[in-house]
């Protein structure tokens, strides 16, 4: 019988005595690890001081990246490779989300999924297939994985914010536009922000837009 890999990684809880009302899962990109995005927490806490932030290491070690992990292997940006990898990793992230919601006595309405690059692919795929609707999905420099007839798999339609640099040389900005149109096609409220002159990273303006989105869904 197969077992689902258990994830672990750094977490930041609010100060002692603060009632935890939100859970933010930060999914890192290819070849990185949980300590990358956890560095954003001091900024993100300004918008969501009542949240616990967790950035799990992806389930697979990344070849050629010491201390790096991957949600799935990438040798190209082909649809087939992304699809196979996303479908394989999705149950792992979904299981982790369930464990952490149970740990803090929270529900999907208290959940924000955020990711960078490959982590955005995972956040969108898993978030739209949750049994109950999360508070929101925040994606940086990412894309969507679209299986055949993917619209039939959508069980949740949370608000989505996509942030992308117009000079991204890893995942071209067209991938953000494609994701936006796909999300709109199933009736999801999606906002986008383009960071001018930014490559495959998060610019100050993008971080500000992220804070505004978190404030909006912290209700």
TrEMBL record:
Pfam family, one: Abhydrolase_2
Similarity section: Belongs to the AB hydrolase superfamily. AB hydrolase 2 family.
Keyword Nucleotide-binding: no
UniProt protein name: Alpha/beta hydrolase
The entry's keywords: Hydrolase
Residue intervals of the Phospholipase/carboxylesterase/thioesterase domain: 18-217
InterPro entries: AB_hydrolase_fold, LYPA1-2/EST-like, PLipase/COase/thioEstase
Transmembrane parts of this sequence: none
UniProt-recorded Gene Ontology molecular function terms: hydrolase activity
């Amino acid at each position: 019988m197969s077992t689902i890999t258990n994830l672990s990684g750094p977490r930041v809880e609010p100060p002692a005595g603060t009632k935890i009302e939100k859970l933010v899962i930060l999914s890192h990109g290819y070849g990185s690890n949980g300590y990358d995005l956890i560095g954003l927490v001091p900024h993100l806490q300004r918008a969501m001081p009542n949240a616990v932030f967790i950035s799990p290491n992806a389930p697979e070690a990344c070849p050629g990246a010491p201390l790096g992990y991957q949600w799935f292997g990438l040798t190209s940006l082909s649809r087939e490779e992304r699809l196979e990898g996303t479908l394989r990793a999705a149950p792992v992230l979904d299981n982790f989300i369930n464990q952490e919601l149970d740990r803090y006595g929270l529900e999907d309405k208290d959940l924000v999924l955020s990711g960078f690059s490959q982590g955005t692919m995972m956040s969108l795929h898993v978030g739209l297939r949750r049994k109950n609707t999360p508070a929101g999905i925040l994606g940086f420099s990412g894309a969507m994985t679209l299986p055949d007839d993917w619209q039939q798999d959508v069980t949740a339609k949370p608000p989505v914010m996509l942030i992308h640099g117009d000079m991204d040389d890893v995942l071209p900005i067209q991938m953000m536009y494609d994701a936006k149109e796909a999300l709109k096609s199933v009736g999801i409220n999606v906002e986008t922000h383009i960071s001018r002159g930014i490559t495959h990273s998060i610019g100050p303006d993008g971080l500000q837009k992220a804070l505004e989105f978190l404030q909006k869904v912290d209700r």
